Amino acid sequence: MTTATLENTSAGSADAAIQSFTVTFLIRRYDPEVDSEPRWQDFDVEMYATDRVLDALHKIKWEQDGSLTFRRSCAHGICGSDAMRINGRNRLACKTLIKDLDISKPIYVEAIKGLPLEKDLVVDMEPFFASYREVQPFLQARTTPEPGKERIQDVASRARFDDTTKCILCAACTSSCPVFWTDGQYFGPAAIVNAHRFIFDSRDDEAKVRLDILNDKEGVWRCRTTFNCTDACPRGIEVTKAIAEVKQAIMRGKP
Amino acid sequence: MTVIESPRTPARPAPRRGVNVEKWGWIYMRASGVILLVLIFGHLFANLMVGEGVKAIDFGFVAGKWASPFWQWWDVLMLWLALIHGANGMRTLINDYTNPGTVQKVLKLALVASVAVLLVLGTLVVFTFDPCPAGSPADLLPSFCPAA
């Protein structure tokens, strides 16, 4: 019986042939027990083009400075833990490849803005989740389905809100929004996206309640359509479009 | 024992009933923007392209325009729509760049005051403009006045 195996010799030479680069990372460090202000610290890391920024952070933490603090869970772009500002743009560290960055210059990595900084790349997400909770992001149906049956929905009705179901609550959009930066009172794109997901769901009956919540002084009207959120979303959700649809639904008074 | 709040407990007070300033401000910006597009390009066309074009603009040209109620209303409408449109934009800038407090209040008051003064002054000028005021010395009047 023959099984396909990697030949040691060829694998070894292939490894050697892959070119690696020394990449400089400038990371905005902040230790609340020592620093009064955040400071920039640089690290040189040996990287391959196919490595991600998250791999660089791991290498730094494991091999150079164990005190570097950041969040990550799945490391595959679905848990939404490692949103950070990479070269001034909100990105997931686990989805940003070295080959897509200009490594002739240092790569700047800092925590997302607009939320209280706790340590290094970790921010307090509570204000973000507070506005998420406020839009009642759960199904509220007044009818009960037939016993043993699911709630039926046709393909077109499901497609109506498909885009906004993709949100992973990483806060990349909300913390890229200049209106959110000002005083943090604005609901923020992520909360509106998650309201949109239920407002336009044909199985949900409380769209009016959510539209009333978002028809607030700090609601959708503060959106200035700068498209930072759409650019920041690692899931490719058309966030600004979703906000515009909620605005129109409020004007109509129904989804 | 910790009490877990109901997920439907509102975290901020329910929005006040009645007129929603932010919503109407948003609608106003779009509505006035569309009308201003027509008014401003109409204004530019009438002043710069028609007849002798830009060379014709002088005191007499403006006086001639404001002799007609049509251009009076055109200009007053443009003044009100554009000034309030701009002021609403400035209001959002103040909201963006200052924190709630005394400074923000003072800036907003100054904005409202300057807009009110400009609106009253502008409207007054357009409707009461008289190129040949009675009793003026002849050498100060434009050539088309009967007294000059």
Could you characterize the architecture of this molecule?
The complex is a heterodimer of chains A (255) and B (148). With 255 residues, chain A is an alpha+beta fold. Chain A is 32% helix and 15% strand. Chain A is built from nine helices and seven strands. In chain A, the strands form two sheets. In chain A, strands 2-1-5-3-4 form a five-stranded mixed beta sheet, covered by helices on one side. A two-stranded antiparallel sheet of chain A has the order 6-7. In chain A, helix 3 packs parallel to helix 6, helix 6 packs antiparallel against helix 7 and helix 6 (189-199) packs across helix 9. The model of chain A has no long low-confidence stretch (mean pLDDT 92). By secondary structure, chain B is mostly helical. The N and C termini of chain B lie far apart (94 Å). At the A-B interface, helix 3, helix 5 and helix 9 of A face helix 1 and helix 3 of B.
Give the SSE map.
The complex is a heterodimer of chains A (255) and B (148).
Chain A: H1 8-17, E1 20-29, E2 39-48, H2 53-64, E3 83-86, E4 89-92, E5 107-110, E6 117-119, E7 122-123, H3 126-134, H4 155-160, H5 178-183, H6 189-199, H7 207-214, H8 228-232, H9 239-252
Parallel strand pairs in A: 1-5
Antiparallel strand pairs in A: 1-2, 3-4, 3-5, 6-7
Helix pairs in contact in A: 3-6, 6-7, 6-9
Chain B: H1 21-48, H2 59-65, H3 69-97, H4 102-128
Helix pairs in contact in B: 1-3, 3-4
